[in-house]
Structures are given as C-alpha cells and as structure tokens.
Amino acid sequence: MESGEGKSLNFIEAIVEKDIREGLHDGRIQTRFPPEPNGYLHIGHAKAICIDFGIAEKYNGICNLRFDDTNPIKEDVEYVDAIKEDIEWLGFKWGEIFYASDYFQQLYDFAEDLIKKGHAYVEEQSAEQIAAQKGTPTTPGINSPFRDRPVEESLDLFRRMNKGEFPEGSLTLRAKIDMAHSNMHFRDPIIYRIINVPHHRTGTAWKVYPMYDFAHGQCDYFEGVTHSICTLEFVVHRPLYDYFIDLLMKSDYRPRQYEFNRLNLTYTMMSKRKLLQLVQEKAVKGWDDPRMPTITGLRRRGYTPESIRNFIDRIGYTKYEGVVDVGLLEYAVREDLNKHATRVSVVLNPVKLIITNYPEDKKEEMVAIDNPEDPNSTTHTVTFARELYIEQEDFMENAPKKYFRMTPGQDVRLKNGYIVTCTGCKKDETGKVVEVYAEYDPSSRSGSDTSNRKVKGTLHWVAVDDCIDVEVRLYDRLFTVENPSDPKIEDFRDYLNPDSLKIITNAKAEKYLADAQPLQHFQFQRIGYFNVDPDSTPDKKVFNRTVSLKDTWSKKIN
Length: 558
Ligand code: ATP
Ligand code: MG
Hints:
It comes from Porphyromonas canoris. The chain is of the alpha/beta class. Helix content is 26%, strand content 23%. The chain contains 13 helices and 25 strands. It has helices at 11-21, 43-58, 77-90, 104-116, 127-132, 151-163, 212-223, 238-248, 272-280, 295-301, 305-315, 326-340, 553-557; strands spanning 30-33, 62-67, 97-99, 120-123, 172-175, 190-194, 208-210, 227-231, 256-260, 342-344, 346-347, 350-355, 363-369, 379-385, 387-391, 411-414, 419-427, 433-440, 458-459, 462-463, 467-475, 501-510, 521-524, 528-532, 541-548. The strands form six sheets. A seven-stranded mixed beta sheet has the order 10-23-24-25-21-22-11, covered by helices on one side. Strand 23 and strand 24 (528-532) form a beta hairpin. Helix 2 crosses helix 11 (305-315) and helix 7 (212-223) crosses helix 8 (238-248). The longest helix has 16 residues, at 43-58. The mean pLDDT is 95. Adenosine-5'-triphosphate binds at residues 34-36, 44-45, 47-48, 68, 230-231, 262-263, 270-272.
C-alpha cells in the first residue's frame, strides 16, 4: 500500500489510515509508550518508541509517555529519569507524562465495582495451588473453593488487604470469568496482589497493586488512547484487554490493541532482568557500558540517534517473529558516521618511521580534509616531520607479493604527506623492529604532487613531536553465541566474550584530537569510527571504537 509520500505503509500505518478515513474517533490519533521503570531502555524499546511516537507524528496525533509502575519491588526513579533522557535523545517528544500509579484509585474503584457485580472474588489459595488448578489449553481448570464466596465477604477482605492486614502472598483478587475458557488468560486471572514495599511515587498509600492485564488496557481507556501498539506476545492477552474495556466503556470510545514483531538481534541479549544482572554482577561497567544494547550504552559507544532510527526504519514492522543480524545495526551507524565523522590519524600500535633525507629541524603543516564525502568539507592541519609513528603492522621486512605497505624497496604514500620509499629497519636483540627507515620525494607533496608516481598503498601516521598519547577502547560483541537468550542455554554468563573489551593505553593521536569533546565522532583513518568517552580527562583522552570500518566479524566466524 502507498502513502501520500510514495513510501509503502507498514501494516499499523495502514490500519491508522483506514481508521482516519472511516472517521473513527473523529480522526483523533493517540498512542502511548508504556515502559516499566525497572531498567534502562534497550534497542528493542527503540523499535517500540519509533512506532508509538512515529504514528503520532505522522498523523498529527499525540503520543504520551506512560510509566507502567505497578510493581514497586523492581521500580525506581533512576530509571524514570533515564528513560526520559533516552527518548529525547532519540529525537521524540511526548505529549504528557502519565504513570499507571496516577490511576491507582480509579483501578481500585473499578475492582470494587467488579466484586460488587460478581465479576471478582478474593482468593485465599497460594500461587502454587492456583497454578495447579489452571488446567491446560486442552483440559479445563478447576474452580477455586473461594470462587462463590459472598460478595460482601470479598469486598471486606479486599478492603482489608489494602489496609495492610494481610501478609504478601496470602490473598489475591481474581476476576471471575471462566475456568474452562480456551484462552488460559480467562481462567480467573489474578488482578490484584498485596505488595508491602513502598512505591517510588505513592509511598505506602497502597498495599494492593494491579496486575499488568488489569492495568494496561484500563490506563489506555482513562487516557483516551486510540491505538495501543505493543509486541506480539500480547496477542493472547488482547481478548482479556477487550473484556475489561467492555466492562468499563461508557460511550462508543474504546482503545484498540495492535501487535508487531519485537526486535531480536543476533549476539544480543534484550531482557532487562538479565541486563540488570550483568550490571549488578559487574560483568559490564554499568547500564551505559558501550557493550550494552541499552540506548545509553549505544550513545556512549558512539551510535547516533539517526543511525538507530534508520536501522529501525529499515527492518520494518511485521506480524512475524524473526531475528535481525546485528551487522545491520553496525552497518547503519557506519553509514551515518561516514557522512559526518571528521577524519583523523591515530596510530594504535606505533613504531618509529624516520625519513632519513628530511631535514632534522624542518616541520610542515599539511592540510587534512575533515570529510572527503562532503564537497564543502572543512579542513585542519597535521604536522609532518622527520620522525613519525606508523602502525607496526604496516611494516614487514620480508613481505609477500601483494603487501602494499612498507617493505624495503617499496613506495607508499603517507596520507596528506609525501610518497616515501622504504629503505630498511633496525631491530632489537629479540628481533623486534624498533625503527623503520624511508626516503621521501619532495616533489610528491599531497595537494601539489608533480612526481607523476603511482603507488598502491596509503598509510596513516602521526609526527613524534606533535602527537598526544590517548587511550583507545576496542569493543567486540558481548556474547560469543548468536542467541544468548536460547532457552537451551542454562546460564547466559557462560557465553560472555572474554575479548569484548581490549584497552590500548598508549596509542598516538594527531594533536588535533587534544581539543576533542565528549561524544564527538571521528573516523580514525583505516581503522574505524570512534568517539570521545566521558572518562577522558584534560590530560588523557579516551576513545571508544563505535564500529570498525568494515565488517570483520563475518570473516571470523566462517
Ligand atoms: P524486557 O522483557 O526487556 O524487560 P519489557 O517488554 O518488559 O522488556 P517494557 O518496559 O514493558 O519492557 O516495554 C515497554 C514497551 O517496549 C512495550 O510496549 C514492549 O512491547 C516494548 N518492547 C520491549 N522489548 C521490545 C523489543 N525487543 N522489541 C520491540 N519492542 C519491545
Ligand atoms: Mg513489560
């Protein structure tokens, strides 16, 4: 199907356009993004955010932010603040901020109403007993002995539950629906439980808390949500969502739930519970560790909001579960940074190169184009001198035929500098190369080259006296297996990649990087995309590798 802009619609946009055409709710569009503040947002949430906010933006509606804070045991304001920051960073604006806890009174009143109408009862059996009586999808469950207790008794018990007269786990409130229903969610679901932990917003005002199924749809209804978009695992919950809405509805208005395929990425874990475990057990440095799939981790790693949104746009929304290659996410950031990152030279593994025919006291300021992809690119200067650093890997004494880097007798170009001919090297007693020698051709200066010489290789370098020492952090995938969430895996921590972080403490960077600012993006020529880590000090800059220039991983596994 085509929208006005000629881009094909996803199935949710198609539903929304049909509803607008048919005049549903007078064309009013309202969505919500409903995170539980029990952890930081991850790249999977970005997919939900892009559709929830994207639909509202595209169809002149509103998307509210609603914190689904119905379980005080796991929730915290730290997460509320982080979630807001991440959504804004991704580039989205919410209409209003709501909390499920804003509706605790309304939800409680609705629960009492259900009890009074015979639609709910207080259960005294344990969670295990209830589970044992649930039946299976093909066999009916067994009615609770408390199912038919008098309304007055349930009402009295429910009120006393909320006064704190009973311990956690002793009593629950169950909806009285159908213990033989083919949808297991209808077999008298628990709708309220006792929790004796203070809530981060309502303190100790409440002792009973609504379950997800009793809160979500009703909150949608109270707020006036028109399209409640969520992931496919909620398909089986939808009939119950509609059941409670049916009991609440006072006019034609009702919210409707639509489900899309969640994002699963190879080599990536996306359960907040397990990510929290990694943080608590210090397997990573925190929620913003650049190896984490969290939005804050990706930001620190050097991902841009545009790259994340482009990635989500490319994978699209369907009704079928699947797994996306994490290489596609890496591709998206490479593509974006290629357009925006300033090109600089950093030598990770330095060895000295001495240009023996270059005057000892001479220095030249060479012009470096910040971004060759941009025809109007700015420039900066780099200092060329007799003593330089190049990568150890860029010199080989006895090189194979197709080695186009430094080897005695071979010409290479030093980027933004001159063509040089390698003349030899000096080794220490262990045979390690400690100095490389070359001669330069003064007529081959980049930008005014009259030498007419063609060379196959171009190397990056920095001047020994005009560079700074920097720390470089090289990241790799956090897990060694494609699906760390595989149910067959007993303990996902057994599959943590021991080489997911490599630290180089004394890389040599051109002096231009002394002024680099936190989170600024660079391309280290021939190496990859990097950004400045907030751990940087005025004395020592720290750089994170966002992504290598090319996908090297696919070669590694083959
Ligand atoms: P987790 O299982 O990681 O704890 P969650 O689903 O419990 O995640 P919520 O805070 O409840 O986390 O999620 C808020 C919204 O984000 C929900 O609408 C949920 O469907 C959506 N969401 C969560 N994970 C993904 C994912 N991997 N892909 C797409 N949407 C997701
Ligand atoms: Mg959830």
